[in-house]
Known about the structure:
By secondary structure, the chain is α/β, with parallel strands linked by helices. It contains 13 helices and 28 strands. It binds adenosine-5'-triphosphate and magnesium ion. Adenosine-5'-triphosphate binds next to helix 2 and strand 9.
Amino acid sequence: MEKFKLTDHKKSDEESPERRNFVRDIVEEDLKTDKFGGMVHTRFPPEPNGYLHIGHAKSICLNFGLARDYKGLCNLRFDDTNPTKEESEYVESIKLDVRWLGFDWGDREYYASDYFDQLYEFALTLVRKGKAYVCDLTGDEIRQYRGTLTEPGKDSPYRNRSVDENLDLFQRMRKGEFPNGSRTLRAKIDMGSPNINMRDPVLYRILHATHHRTGDAWCIYPMYDWAHGQSDSIEKITHSVCTLEFADHRPLYDWFLDELGIYHSKQIEFARLNLTYTVMSKRRLLLLVEEGLVKGWDDPRMPTISGLRRRGYSPESIRLFADRIGVGRSESTSDVALLEDCVRDDLNRRAPRVMAVHRPVKLVLENYPEGVVEELEAVNNPEDHSAGSRTIPFSKILYIEQDDFRENPPKKYFRLSPGMEVRLRYAYIIKCTEVIKDKATGQILELRCTYDPETRSGSPQSARKVKGTIHWVSAAHAKDAEVRLYDRLFTVENPGGDDWRSFLNPHSFEQVQGCKVEPGLATAKAGERFQFERLGYFCVDEDSAGEKLVFNRTVTLRDTWAKMEKATDKT
Ligand code: ATP
Ligand code: MG
Protein backbone atom coordinates (compact mmCIF):
# COMPACT_ATOMS: atom_id res chain seq x y z
CA MET A 1 0.00 0.00 0.00
CA GLU A 2 1.37 3.34 -0.93
CA LYS A 3 0.89 6.14 1.54
CA PHE A 4 0.37 9.81 0.96
CA LYS A 5 2.72 11.99 2.86
CA LEU A 6 2.19 15.65 3.48
CA THR A 7 5.14 16.47 1.31
CA ASP A 8 3.45 14.89 -1.69
CA HIS A 9 1.12 17.83 -1.82
CA LYS A 10 1.83 21.40 -2.53
CA LYS A 11 0.60 23.54 0.33
CA SER A 12 -0.51 26.35 -1.89
CA ASP A 13 -2.97 24.52 -4.09
CA GLU A 14 -6.52 25.73 -4.11
CA GLU A 15 -9.59 23.69 -4.85
CA SER A 16 -9.22 23.18 -8.57
CA PRO A 17 -12.22 21.78 -10.41
CA GLU A 18 -10.11 20.93 -13.44
CA ARG A 19 -7.70 18.60 -11.66
CA ARG A 20 -7.25 15.55 -13.88
CA ASN A 21 -7.87 11.99 -12.87
CA PHE A 22 -8.58 8.78 -14.74
CA VAL A 23 -12.35 9.05 -14.22
CA ARG A 24 -12.33 12.48 -15.82
CA ASP A 25 -10.27 11.08 -18.68
CA ILE A 26 -12.90 8.40 -19.31
CA VAL A 27 -15.73 10.91 -19.12
CA GLU A 28 -13.97 13.28 -21.51
CA GLU A 29 -13.31 10.47 -23.96
CA ASP A 30 -16.99 9.50 -23.84
CA LEU A 31 -17.97 13.10 -24.43
CA LYS A 32 -15.63 13.23 -27.41
CA THR A 33 -17.06 10.05 -28.94
CA ASP A 34 -20.60 11.05 -28.02
CA LYS A 35 -21.07 7.72 -26.27
CA PHE A 36 -23.91 8.92 -24.07
CA GLY A 37 -25.25 11.60 -26.37
CA GLY A 38 -22.97 14.22 -24.81
CA MET A 39 -24.45 13.67 -21.35
CA VAL A 40 -22.77 13.24 -18.00
CA HIS A 41 -25.17 11.91 -15.40
CA THR A 42 -23.77 10.47 -12.19
CA ARG A 43 -25.26 9.46 -8.86
CA PHE A 44 -24.25 9.14 -5.25
CA PRO A 45 -25.83 5.93 -3.94
CA PRO A 46 -25.57 5.61 -0.14
CA GLU A 47 -27.22 2.84 1.78
CA PRO A 48 -29.14 4.53 4.61
CA ASN A 49 -27.70 2.24 7.28
CA GLY A 50 -25.43 4.72 8.99
CA TYR A 51 -24.09 8.25 8.86
CA LEU A 52 -21.82 9.38 6.06
CA HIS A 53 -18.09 9.53 6.67
CA ILE A 54 -15.11 11.24 5.10
CA GLY A 55 -14.77 8.34 2.63
CA HIS A 56 -18.25 9.06 1.37
CA ALA A 57 -17.22 12.70 1.03
CA LYS A 58 -14.59 11.59 -1.47
CA SER A 59 -17.28 9.84 -3.51
CA ILE A 60 -19.68 12.79 -3.18
CA CYS A 61 -17.04 15.27 -4.35
CA LEU A 62 -16.18 12.99 -7.25
CA ASN A 63 -19.74 12.33 -8.42
CA PHE A 64 -21.16 15.80 -7.87
CA GLY A 65 -17.89 17.33 -9.07
CA LEU A 66 -18.15 15.50 -12.42
CA ALA A 67 -21.70 16.73 -12.87
CA ARG A 68 -20.69 20.29 -11.98
CA ASP A 69 -17.66 20.41 -14.24
CA TYR A 70 -19.20 18.73 -17.28
CA LYS A 71 -22.55 20.50 -17.01
CA GLY A 72 -24.30 17.28 -16.16
CA LEU A 73 -26.48 16.03 -13.34
CA CYS A 74 -25.91 14.00 -10.21
CA ASN A 75 -28.69 12.12 -8.48
CA LEU A 76 -28.94 11.25 -4.84
CA ARG A 77 -30.12 7.68 -4.66
CA PHE A 78 -30.76 5.80 -1.49
CA ASP A 79 -29.85 2.19 -1.93
CA ASP A 80 -32.51 1.04 0.51
CA THR A 81 -32.84 -2.65 -0.24
CA ASN A 82 -32.22 -3.97 3.27
CA PRO A 83 -35.19 -3.18 5.51
CA THR A 84 -33.65 -4.62 8.66
CA LYS A 85 -30.75 -2.18 8.85
CA GLU A 86 -32.12 0.99 7.37
CA GLU A 87 -33.85 3.92 8.99
CA SER A 88 -35.26 7.31 8.06
CA GLU A 89 -32.93 8.94 10.59
CA TYR A 90 -30.05 7.93 8.34
CA VAL A 91 -31.82 9.24 5.23
CA GLU A 92 -32.25 12.65 6.84
CA SER A 93 -28.67 12.79 8.08
CA ILE A 94 -27.34 11.88 4.63
CA LYS A 95 -29.34 14.62 2.94
CA LEU A 96 -28.13 17.17 5.46
CA ASP A 97 -24.52 16.11 5.04
CA VAL A 98 -24.53 16.19 1.24
CA ARG A 99 -26.12 19.63 1.26
CA TRP A 100 -23.72 20.86 3.90
CA LEU A 101 -20.81 19.71 1.75
CA GLY A 102 -22.15 22.13 -0.84
CA PHE A 103 -23.88 19.86 -3.33
CA ASP A 104 -27.38 19.87 -4.72
CA TRP A 105 -29.32 17.02 -6.30
CA GLY A 106 -32.22 19.26 -7.31
CA ASP A 107 -35.43 17.25 -7.43
CA ARG A 108 -33.59 14.03 -8.16
CA GLU A 109 -33.90 12.33 -4.80
CA TYR A 110 -34.44 8.69 -5.61
CA TYR A 111 -34.76 5.45 -3.73
CA ALA A 112 -34.03 1.95 -4.95
CA SER A 113 -37.30 1.09 -3.20
CA ASP A 114 -39.10 3.33 -5.74
CA TYR A 115 -38.07 0.74 -8.31
CA PHE A 116 -39.22 -2.40 -6.49
CA ASP A 117 -42.10 -2.93 -8.97
CA GLN A 118 -39.86 -2.38 -11.95
CA LEU A 119 -37.11 -4.61 -10.53
CA TYR A 120 -39.69 -7.32 -9.97
CA GLU A 121 -40.80 -7.01 -13.60
CA PHE A 122 -37.17 -7.23 -14.72
CA ALA A 123 -36.81 -10.41 -12.68
CA LEU A 124 -39.88 -11.89 -14.35
CA THR A 125 -38.27 -11.10 -17.70
CA LEU A 126 -35.19 -13.10 -16.74
CA VAL A 127 -37.33 -15.99 -15.48
CA ARG A 128 -39.28 -16.05 -18.74
CA LYS A 129 -36.03 -16.07 -20.70
CA GLY A 130 -34.87 -19.07 -18.68
CA LYS A 131 -32.15 -16.92 -17.16
CA ALA A 132 -33.31 -17.05 -13.55
CA TYR A 133 -34.70 -19.78 -11.30
CA VAL A 134 -36.16 -20.30 -7.88
CA CYS A 135 -33.77 -22.20 -5.65
CA ASP A 136 -34.67 -24.00 -2.42
CA LEU A 137 -31.16 -24.34 -1.06
CA THR A 138 -30.57 -22.69 2.31
CA GLY A 139 -28.09 -19.87 2.63
CA ASP A 140 -25.46 -22.27 3.98
CA GLU A 141 -26.04 -24.71 1.18
CA ILE A 142 -25.76 -21.97 -1.42
CA ARG A 143 -22.39 -21.08 0.05
CA GLN A 144 -21.25 -24.71 -0.02
CA TYR A 145 -22.35 -25.12 -3.62
CA ARG A 146 -20.66 -21.90 -4.64
CA GLY A 147 -17.13 -23.34 -4.53
CA THR A 148 -14.05 -21.28 -3.78
CA LEU A 149 -11.58 -19.09 -5.62
CA THR A 150 -9.69 -22.22 -6.67
CA GLU A 151 -12.59 -24.68 -7.08
CA PRO A 152 -15.60 -24.33 -9.34
CA GLY A 153 -19.09 -24.38 -7.87
CA LYS A 154 -21.76 -27.08 -8.27
CA ASP A 155 -25.11 -26.63 -9.94
CA SER A 156 -28.06 -26.31 -7.58
CA PRO A 157 -30.45 -29.29 -7.83
CA TYR A 158 -33.20 -26.71 -8.51
CA ARG A 159 -31.37 -25.13 -11.42
CA ASN A 160 -33.34 -26.89 -14.12
CA ARG A 161 -36.85 -26.11 -12.99
CA SER A 162 -39.15 -25.21 -15.87
CA VAL A 163 -39.93 -21.61 -16.68
CA ASP A 164 -43.53 -22.18 -15.62
CA GLU A 165 -42.58 -23.66 -12.28
CA ASN A 166 -40.16 -20.80 -11.68
CA LEU A 167 -42.77 -18.19 -12.59
CA ASP A 168 -45.29 -19.81 -10.28
CA LEU A 169 -42.87 -20.10 -7.36
CA PHE A 170 -41.43 -16.61 -7.77
CA GLN A 171 -44.91 -15.06 -7.87
CA ARG A 172 -45.83 -16.99 -4.74
CA MET A 173 -42.64 -15.83 -3.06
CA ARG A 174 -43.79 -12.31 -3.74
CA LYS A 175 -47.26 -13.04 -2.37
CA GLY A 176 -45.78 -14.13 0.92
CA GLU A 177 -46.52 -17.83 0.80
CA PHE A 178 -43.08 -18.94 2.02
CA PRO A 179 -41.13 -18.29 5.20
CA ASN A 180 -37.93 -16.26 5.44
CA GLY A 181 -34.91 -17.91 3.91
CA SER A 182 -36.81 -20.84 2.41
CA ARG A 183 -36.26 -19.86 -1.22
CA THR A 184 -34.34 -17.41 -3.36
CA LEU A 185 -34.47 -16.27 -6.95
CA ARG A 186 -31.10 -16.77 -8.63
CA ALA A 187 -29.66 -15.78 -11.97
CA LYS A 188 -28.74 -18.75 -14.14
CA ILE A 189 -25.25 -17.90 -15.32
CA ASP A 190 -22.31 -20.23 -14.77
CA MET A 191 -21.37 -22.19 -11.63
CA GLY A 192 -17.98 -22.89 -13.21
CA SER A 193 -17.10 -19.24 -13.79
CA PRO A 194 -13.72 -18.19 -12.43
CA ASN A 195 -15.55 -15.11 -11.10
CA ILE A 196 -17.55 -16.15 -8.04
CA ASN A 197 -19.98 -13.29 -8.58
CA MET A 198 -21.11 -15.01 -11.78
CA ARG A 199 -21.95 -18.31 -10.05
CA ASP A 200 -25.71 -17.98 -10.12
CA PRO A 201 -25.97 -14.97 -7.78
CA VAL A 202 -29.06 -14.49 -5.67
CA LEU A 203 -31.38 -11.77 -6.97
CA TYR A 204 -34.14 -11.94 -4.36
CA ARG A 205 -34.47 -13.27 -0.87
CA ILE A 206 -37.57 -13.72 1.25
CA LEU A 207 -37.68 -11.36 4.19
CA HIS A 208 -40.92 -10.65 6.02
CA ALA A 209 -39.86 -7.27 7.34
CA THR A 210 -41.26 -3.76 7.35
CA HIS A 211 -39.40 -1.37 5.11
CA HIS A 212 -38.94 2.26 6.15
CA ARG A 213 -40.61 3.44 2.96
CA THR A 214 -42.61 0.61 1.41
CA GLY A 215 -43.96 -0.66 4.72
CA ASP A 216 -45.29 -4.22 4.39
CA ALA A 217 -45.88 -4.12 0.64
CA TRP A 218 -42.98 -6.47 0.02
CA CYS A 219 -41.70 -9.63 1.60
CA ILE A 220 -39.04 -10.28 -1.02
CA TYR A 221 -36.18 -7.84 -1.32
CA PRO A 222 -33.68 -7.43 -4.16
CA MET A 223 -29.99 -7.99 -3.49
CA TYR A 224 -27.57 -5.10 -3.96
CA ASP A 225 -26.18 -6.33 -7.28
CA TRP A 226 -29.62 -6.80 -8.73
CA ALA A 227 -30.92 -3.45 -7.58
CA HIS A 228 -27.89 -1.32 -8.29
CA GLY A 229 -27.21 -1.63 -12.00
CA GLN A 230 -30.88 -1.64 -12.91
CA SER A 231 -31.44 1.49 -10.81
CA ASP A 232 -28.56 3.13 -12.71
CA SER A 233 -30.23 2.10 -15.94
CA ILE A 234 -33.67 3.37 -14.93
CA GLU A 235 -32.13 6.75 -14.05
CA LYS A 236 -30.09 6.77 -17.28
CA ILE A 237 -26.88 7.19 -15.34
CA THR A 238 -24.01 7.54 -17.80
CA HIS A 239 -21.07 6.87 -15.48
CA SER A 240 -21.68 4.69 -12.46
CA VAL A 241 -18.68 5.43 -10.29
CA CYS A 242 -18.04 3.04 -7.40
CA THR A 243 -15.19 1.73 -5.29
CA LEU A 244 -12.68 -0.92 -6.37
CA GLU A 245 -14.26 -3.84 -4.55
CA PHE A 246 -17.00 -3.75 -7.17
CA ALA A 247 -14.62 -4.35 -10.07
CA ASP A 248 -15.30 -8.09 -9.80
CA HIS A 249 -19.01 -7.35 -9.91
CA ARG A 250 -18.76 -5.48 -13.19
CA PRO A 251 -19.24 -8.57 -15.41
CA LEU A 252 -22.44 -9.23 -13.50
CA TYR A 253 -23.52 -5.60 -13.76
CA ASP A 254 -23.03 -5.83 -17.52
CA TRP A 255 -24.67 -9.27 -17.78
CA PHE A 256 -27.92 -8.08 -16.18
CA LEU A 257 -28.19 -5.03 -18.41
CA ASP A 258 -27.36 -7.01 -21.53
CA GLU A 259 -29.81 -9.81 -20.75
CA LEU A 260 -32.56 -7.30 -20.04
CA GLY A 261 -31.60 -5.28 -23.12
CA ILE A 262 -32.01 -1.98 -21.30
CA TYR A 263 -30.02 1.29 -21.09
CA HIS A 264 -26.44 0.43 -20.24
CA SER A 265 -24.55 2.66 -17.79
CA LYS A 266 -20.79 2.37 -17.56
CA GLN A 267 -19.37 1.23 -14.24
CA ILE A 268 -16.02 2.76 -13.28
CA GLU A 269 -14.16 1.78 -10.12
CA PHE A 270 -11.83 4.00 -8.08
CA ALA A 271 -9.82 3.43 -4.90
CA ARG A 272 -11.72 4.12 -1.70
CA LEU A 273 -10.34 6.51 0.87
CA ASN A 274 -8.63 4.99 3.87
CA LEU A 275 -7.42 7.26 6.63
CA THR A 276 -4.88 6.70 9.40
CA TYR A 277 -5.84 6.62 13.11
CA THR A 278 -9.49 5.92 12.49
CA VAL A 279 -11.94 3.27 11.32
CA MET A 280 -14.22 3.83 8.40
CA SER A 281 -16.37 0.75 8.10
CA LYS A 282 -19.97 1.64 8.86
CA ARG A 283 -20.25 -1.54 10.89
CA ARG A 284 -17.46 -0.44 13.19
CA LEU A 285 -18.69 3.12 13.39
CA LEU A 286 -22.08 1.76 14.43
CA LEU A 287 -20.43 -0.37 17.12
CA LEU A 288 -18.58 2.67 18.48
CA VAL A 289 -21.93 4.44 18.79
CA GLU A 290 -23.91 1.49 20.13
CA GLU A 291 -21.31 0.51 22.70
CA GLY A 292 -21.02 4.07 23.93
CA LEU A 293 -17.34 4.26 23.04
CA VAL A 294 -18.10 7.66 21.53
CA LYS A 295 -20.96 10.03 22.31
CA GLY A 296 -22.85 9.49 19.07
CA TRP A 297 -22.51 9.63 15.30
CA ASP A 298 -21.58 13.29 15.55
CA ASP A 299 -18.98 12.87 18.27
CA PRO A 300 -16.22 15.26 17.16
CA ARG A 301 -13.72 12.40 17.18
CA MET A 302 -15.68 10.41 14.60
CA PRO A 303 -14.63 10.46 10.92
CA THR A 304 -18.29 11.05 10.04
CA ILE A 305 -19.29 14.20 8.20
CA SER A 306 -21.47 15.13 11.17
CA GLY A 307 -18.57 14.53 13.55
CA LEU A 308 -16.19 16.62 11.46
CA ARG A 309 -18.82 19.36 11.23
CA ARG A 310 -19.28 19.42 14.98
CA ARG A 311 -15.53 19.39 15.40
CA GLY A 312 -15.40 22.59 13.36
CA TYR A 313 -14.36 21.37 9.92
CA SER A 314 -15.70 23.53 7.11
CA PRO A 315 -17.17 22.06 3.93
CA GLU A 316 -14.43 23.91 2.05
CA SER A 317 -11.72 22.12 4.00
CA ILE A 318 -13.23 18.72 3.23
CA ARG A 319 -13.56 19.53 -0.46
CA LEU A 320 -9.98 20.76 -0.45
CA PHE A 321 -8.94 17.45 1.07
CA ALA A 322 -10.85 15.47 -1.57
CA ASP A 323 -9.11 17.54 -4.20
CA ARG A 324 -5.64 17.10 -2.74
CA ILE A 325 -5.86 13.32 -2.33
CA GLY A 326 -7.12 12.96 -5.89
CA VAL A 327 -8.78 9.92 -7.42
CA GLY A 328 -6.77 6.88 -8.34
CA ARG A 329 -6.98 3.20 -9.04
CA SER A 330 -4.67 1.71 -6.45
CA GLU A 331 -5.49 1.18 -2.80
CA SER A 332 -3.85 3.69 -0.54
CA THR A 333 -4.11 5.16 2.92
CA SER A 334 -4.08 8.88 3.43
CA ASP A 335 -2.44 10.43 6.44
CA VAL A 336 -5.01 12.10 8.70
CA ALA A 337 -2.44 14.89 9.10
CA LEU A 338 -3.25 15.83 5.53
CA LEU A 339 -6.91 16.31 6.44
CA GLU A 340 -5.89 18.35 9.46
CA ASP A 341 -3.69 20.48 7.26
CA CYS A 342 -6.61 21.21 4.95
CA VAL A 343 -8.73 22.56 7.78
CA ARG A 344 -5.79 24.63 9.03
CA ASP A 345 -5.24 26.10 5.59
CA ASP A 346 -8.90 26.95 5.24
CA LEU A 347 -9.44 28.35 8.73
CA ASN A 348 -6.18 30.28 8.65
CA ARG A 349 -7.71 32.31 5.86
CA ARG A 350 -11.14 32.69 7.41
CA ALA A 351 -11.30 32.25 11.15
CA PRO A 352 -11.32 35.42 13.29
CA ARG A 353 -8.57 35.51 15.92
CA VAL A 354 -9.58 35.86 19.54
CA MET A 355 -7.90 35.45 22.90
CA ALA A 356 -8.87 32.67 25.25
CA VAL A 357 -7.10 31.29 28.29
CA HIS A 358 -7.45 27.56 28.85
CA ARG A 359 -5.95 27.20 32.31
CA PRO A 360 -5.98 30.64 33.87
CA VAL A 361 -3.74 32.09 36.53
CA LYS A 362 -4.48 35.52 37.96
CA LEU A 363 -2.07 38.34 37.13
CA VAL A 364 -2.22 41.72 38.93
CA LEU A 365 -0.56 44.82 37.46
CA GLU A 366 0.52 46.65 40.58
CA ASN A 367 1.21 49.99 38.92
CA TYR A 368 -1.96 50.00 36.77
CA PRO A 369 -4.66 52.34 38.08
CA GLU A 370 -7.61 50.81 39.88
CA GLY A 371 -10.94 51.02 38.06
CA VAL A 372 -9.53 52.02 34.68
CA VAL A 373 -10.52 50.05 31.58
CA GLU A 374 -8.74 50.62 28.28
CA GLU A 375 -10.23 49.42 25.03
CA LEU A 376 -7.33 48.08 22.99
CA GLU A 377 -7.47 47.48 19.29
CA ALA A 378 -6.93 43.92 18.08
CA VAL A 379 -6.66 42.66 14.52
CA ASN A 380 -9.36 40.14 13.59
CA ASN A 381 -7.41 38.28 10.96
CA PRO A 382 -3.92 39.20 9.80
CA GLU A 383 -4.53 36.99 6.71
CA ASP A 384 -7.61 38.97 5.73
CA HIS A 385 -7.55 42.74 6.08
CA SER A 386 -11.21 43.01 5.19
CA ALA A 387 -11.97 41.29 8.52
CA GLY A 388 -11.04 44.54 10.27
CA SER A 389 -10.36 44.90 13.95
CA ARG A 390 -12.15 44.93 17.29
CA THR A 391 -11.47 46.31 20.73
CA ILE A 392 -10.79 44.26 23.81
CA PRO A 393 -10.91 45.52 27.39
CA PHE A 394 -7.70 45.76 29.42
CA SER A 395 -7.55 46.37 33.16
CA LYS A 396 -5.54 45.89 36.34
CA ILE A 397 -6.40 42.24 36.88
CA LEU A 398 -5.88 39.78 34.05
CA TYR A 399 -5.71 36.07 33.44
CA ILE A 400 -2.89 34.46 31.57
CA GLU A 401 -2.16 30.83 30.79
CA GLN A 402 -0.56 28.87 33.67
CA ASP A 403 1.75 27.44 31.06
CA ASP A 404 3.00 30.89 30.15
CA PHE A 405 4.69 31.31 33.52
CA ARG A 406 7.63 29.37 34.94
CA GLU A 407 9.12 30.15 38.30
CA ASN A 408 12.34 28.43 37.26
CA PRO A 409 12.43 28.83 33.52
CA PRO A 410 14.52 26.53 31.36
CA LYS A 411 16.94 28.10 28.88
CA LYS A 412 15.27 29.85 25.96
CA TYR A 413 11.98 30.19 27.81
CA PHE A 414 10.70 33.49 26.44
CA ARG A 415 7.43 33.64 28.29
CA LEU A 416 6.93 35.07 31.78
CA SER A 417 9.20 34.30 34.72
CA PRO A 418 10.32 36.23 37.82
CA GLY A 419 12.18 39.38 36.86
CA MET A 420 11.67 38.79 33.15
CA GLU A 421 9.65 40.80 30.67
CA VAL A 422 7.07 39.67 28.18
CA ARG A 423 4.63 41.46 25.91
CA LEU A 424 0.91 41.05 26.41
CA ARG A 425 -0.59 40.71 22.94
CA TYR A 426 -2.09 44.02 21.74
CA ALA A 427 -1.19 45.61 25.09
CA TYR A 428 1.93 46.37 27.12
CA ILE A 429 5.23 44.91 28.14
CA ILE A 430 5.04 43.60 31.68
CA LYS A 431 7.58 42.33 34.20
CA CYS A 432 6.95 39.79 36.92
CA THR A 433 7.86 41.08 40.39
CA GLU A 434 6.38 38.55 42.77
CA VAL A 435 4.81 35.10 42.87
CA ILE A 436 2.13 34.51 45.48
CA LYS A 437 1.66 30.87 46.44
CA ASP A 438 -0.55 28.82 48.67
CA LYS A 439 1.67 28.15 51.68
CA ALA A 440 0.35 24.65 52.19
CA THR A 441 0.29 23.34 48.64
CA GLY A 442 2.83 25.52 46.87
CA GLN A 443 0.27 26.19 44.16
CA ILE A 444 0.65 29.55 42.41
CA LEU A 445 -2.31 31.76 43.30
CA GLU A 446 -1.34 35.03 41.74
CA LEU A 447 1.40 36.74 39.78
CA ARG A 448 2.32 40.29 40.68
CA CYS A 449 3.64 42.34 37.79
CA THR A 450 4.33 45.88 36.71
CA TYR A 451 3.58 47.22 33.26
CA ASP A 452 5.54 49.74 31.21
CA PRO A 453 3.01 52.42 30.19
CA GLU A 454 5.30 53.56 27.36
CA THR A 455 4.92 50.29 25.46
CA ARG A 456 1.29 50.14 24.49
CA SER A 457 0.95 48.27 21.16
CA GLY A 458 0.41 50.52 18.21
CA SER A 459 1.59 53.62 20.07
CA PRO A 460 4.57 55.56 18.64
CA GLN A 461 6.75 54.52 21.58
CA SER A 462 5.89 50.82 21.36
CA ALA A 463 9.04 49.93 19.45
CA ARG A 464 10.76 48.36 22.44
CA LYS A 465 11.09 44.65 21.75
CA VAL A 466 10.99 41.64 24.05
CA LYS A 467 11.36 38.04 22.98
CA GLY A 468 7.99 36.66 24.02
CA THR A 469 4.35 37.61 23.49
CA ILE A 470 1.57 35.91 25.42
CA HIS A 471 -2.21 36.11 25.34
CA TRP A 472 -4.46 37.23 28.18
CA VAL A 473 -7.98 38.29 29.07
CA SER A 474 -9.24 40.93 31.46
CA ALA A 475 -10.53 39.19 34.59
CA ALA A 476 -13.53 41.43 35.16
CA HIS A 477 -14.66 41.19 31.55
CA ALA A 478 -13.80 37.63 30.54
CA LYS A 479 -16.51 35.04 30.01
CA ASP A 480 -16.33 31.55 31.43
CA ALA A 481 -16.13 28.74 28.96
CA GLU A 482 -15.69 25.03 28.74
CA VAL A 483 -13.21 23.79 26.18
CA ARG A 484 -13.24 20.27 24.78
CA LEU A 485 -9.93 19.05 23.48
CA TYR A 486 -9.94 16.19 21.00
CA ASP A 487 -7.22 13.97 19.80
CA ARG A 488 -7.04 10.99 17.48
CA LEU A 489 -9.56 8.31 18.29
CA PHE A 490 -7.01 5.50 17.95
CA THR A 491 -3.39 5.23 19.00
CA VAL A 492 -2.24 3.32 15.93
CA GLU A 493 -2.33 4.18 12.25
CA ASN A 494 -4.35 1.18 11.26
CA PRO A 495 -6.59 -0.10 14.07
CA GLY A 496 -7.45 -3.35 12.33
CA GLY A 497 -8.14 -6.89 13.44
CA ASP A 498 -10.68 -8.31 15.87
CA ASP A 499 -9.29 -6.34 18.80
CA TRP A 500 -9.44 -3.01 16.99
CA ARG A 501 -11.20 -1.53 20.02
CA SER A 502 -8.10 -2.11 22.14
CA PHE A 503 -6.38 0.62 20.13
CA LEU A 504 -8.84 3.31 21.21
CA ASN A 505 -6.94 6.34 22.47
CA PRO A 506 -7.83 6.83 26.17
CA HIS A 507 -6.78 10.47 25.88
CA SER A 508 -8.81 11.31 22.80
CA PHE A 509 -11.11 13.60 24.80
CA GLU A 510 -10.36 16.08 27.54
CA GLN A 511 -12.85 18.48 29.03
CA VAL A 512 -11.36 21.70 30.41
CA GLN A 513 -13.65 23.74 32.64
CA GLY A 514 -13.08 27.23 33.94
CA CYS A 515 -11.53 28.65 30.80
CA LYS A 516 -11.70 32.41 30.27
CA VAL A 517 -12.43 33.95 26.89
CA GLU A 518 -12.63 37.52 25.68
CA PRO A 519 -16.07 39.09 26.18
CA GLY A 520 -16.96 39.40 22.50
CA LEU A 521 -17.37 35.63 22.36
CA ALA A 522 -20.45 35.78 24.59
CA THR A 523 -22.62 36.21 21.50
CA ALA A 524 -20.91 33.55 19.36
CA LYS A 525 -23.32 31.10 17.79
CA ALA A 526 -23.05 27.32 17.58
CA GLY A 527 -20.89 26.34 14.63
CA GLU A 528 -18.90 29.60 14.53
CA ARG A 529 -15.18 29.06 14.15
CA PHE A 530 -12.31 30.98 15.69
CA GLN A 531 -8.61 30.85 16.09
CA PHE A 532 -7.75 31.06 19.77
CA GLU A 533 -4.41 32.83 19.48
CA ARG A 534 -1.52 30.46 20.10
CA LEU A 535 -3.85 27.58 20.98
CA GLY A 536 -5.56 26.36 17.85
CA TYR A 537 -8.81 26.52 15.93
CA PHE A 538 -12.02 26.16 17.90
CA CYS A 539 -15.71 26.20 17.15
CA VAL A 540 -18.72 26.84 19.31
CA ASP A 541 -20.41 23.57 20.23
CA GLU A 542 -24.16 23.14 20.08
CA ASP A 543 -24.13 22.41 23.82
CA SER A 544 -23.62 26.15 24.34
CA ALA A 545 -26.77 27.76 25.70
CA GLY A 546 -27.41 31.11 27.33
CA GLU A 547 -24.46 31.93 29.56
CA LYS A 548 -22.85 28.56 28.96
CA LEU A 549 -20.15 28.63 26.32
CA VAL A 550 -18.65 25.40 25.03
CA PHE A 551 -15.88 25.21 22.45
CA ASN A 552 -14.53 22.23 20.54
CA ARG A 553 -10.94 22.25 19.47
CA THR A 554 -10.96 21.57 15.75
CA VAL A 555 -7.22 21.31 15.34
CA THR A 556 -4.06 22.64 16.92
CA LEU A 557 -2.16 25.39 15.13
CA ARG A 558 0.61 23.10 13.97
CA ASP A 559 0.87 19.41 13.53
CA THR A 560 1.82 18.64 17.12
CA TRP A 561 2.00 14.94 16.41
CA ALA A 562 4.65 15.44 13.77
CA LYS A 563 6.57 17.53 16.27
CA MET A 564 6.29 14.83 18.93
CA GLU A 565 7.35 12.13 16.50
CA LYS A 566 10.38 14.20 15.61
CA ALA A 567 11.17 14.69 19.29
CA THR A 568 10.97 10.98 19.98
CA ASP A 569 13.05 10.27 16.89
CA LYS A 570 15.88 12.15 18.51
CA THR A 571 15.88 10.16 21.73
P1 ATP B 1 -21.54 -0.69 3.33
O1 ATP B 1 -21.83 -1.05 1.90
O2 ATP B 1 -20.57 -1.55 4.02
O3 ATP B 1 -22.74 -0.38 4.14
P2 ATP B 1 -20.29 1.60 2.21
O4 ATP B 1 -19.22 2.35 2.89
O5 ATP B 1 -20.04 0.94 0.92
O6 ATP B 1 -20.78 0.65 3.31
P3 ATP B 1 -22.50 2.93 0.97
O7 ATP B 1 -23.59 3.66 1.64
O8 ATP B 1 -22.85 1.75 0.16
O9 ATP B 1 -21.51 2.56 2.10
O10 ATP B 1 -21.61 3.93 0.14
C1 ATP B 1 -22.16 4.90 -0.73
C2 ATP B 1 -21.15 5.29 -1.76
O11 ATP B 1 -19.98 5.81 -1.14
C3 ATP B 1 -20.71 4.10 -2.58
O12 ATP B 1 -20.70 4.47 -3.95
C4 ATP B 1 -19.34 3.80 -2.10
O13 ATP B 1 -18.56 3.29 -3.14
C5 ATP B 1 -18.84 5.15 -1.62
N1 ATP B 1 -17.88 4.98 -0.53
C6 ATP B 1 -18.08 4.34 0.63
N2 ATP B 1 -16.96 4.32 1.37
C7 ATP B 1 -16.03 5.00 0.68
C8 ATP B 1 -14.65 5.34 0.91
N3 ATP B 1 -14.02 4.97 2.02
N4 ATP B 1 -14.01 6.04 -0.04
C9 ATP B 1 -14.64 6.42 -1.16
N5 ATP B 1 -15.93 6.13 -1.44
C10 ATP B 1 -16.62 5.43 -0.54
MG1 MG C 1 -21.87 -0.18 -0.12
